[in-house]
Amino acid sequence: MAIGAVSLLSIWAAYVNQEAHALWDDLHQISLKEDAPACLRAEVTAFMVRLGGPSIGFTTAGLFVIDKECILTIFGLVVTYFVLVIQFSPRGSIASDGNLCNCTAL
């Protein structure tokens, strides 16, 4: 139950990060003509600087922002861990007398 809740929260946090940075392309398409008020140009420029700066979204105790790359990295880490556990499990190294051995068959 807890793993499902954490997974759902992580996916939601990645979605928030994606949507927060989705405005970047839209703002680039806005043409601010010279006749636009200076305060509007300043606000749009400040907003674009904020979007282009550090990543926006939920963080884990301020260490890193949860985004798609973070979720894929954690998923890869978990899969790699389980592959290593399966590879190094002692199931295949039981001698004919039932004792565990570290032996190589030729």
Automatic annotation (TrEMBL):
Q: Which UniProt keywords apply?
A: Membrane, Receptor, Signal, Transmembrane, Transmembrane helix
Signal peptide positions (record)? 1-22
Q: What is its main location?
A: membrane
- What GO annotations for molecular function exist for this entry? signaling receptor activity
Segments crossing the lipid bilayer: 46-66, 71-89
Top-level lineage group = Eukaryota
Designated name of the protein = Solute carrier family 40 protein
Q: How does it sit in the membrane?
A: Multi-pass membrane protein
GO terms (BP aspect): detection of stimulus; sensory perception of taste
Q: Name one Pfam family in it.
A: 7tm_7
- UniProt keyword Signal, yes or no: yes
Q: Where in the cell is it found?
A: Membrane
Q: Which GO terms describe its cellular component?
A: membrane
Alphabetized InterPro entries for the sequence: 7TM_chemorcpt
